[in-house]
Amino acid sequence: DTEVTQTPKHLVMGMTNKKSLKCEQHMGHRAMYWYKQKAKKPPELMFVYSYEKLSINESVPSRFSPECPNSSLLNLHLHALQPEDSALYLCASSPGPPGFAANTGELFFGEGSRLTVL
Amino acid sequence: AQSVSQHNHHVILSEAASLELGCNYSYGGTVNLFWYVQYPGQHLQLLLKYFSGDPLVKGIKGFEAEFIKSKFSFNLRKPSVQWSDTAEYFCAVNPPPITGGGNKLTFGTGTQLKVEL
Question: What pLDDT score does B96 carry?
Answer without folding.
Answer: 61
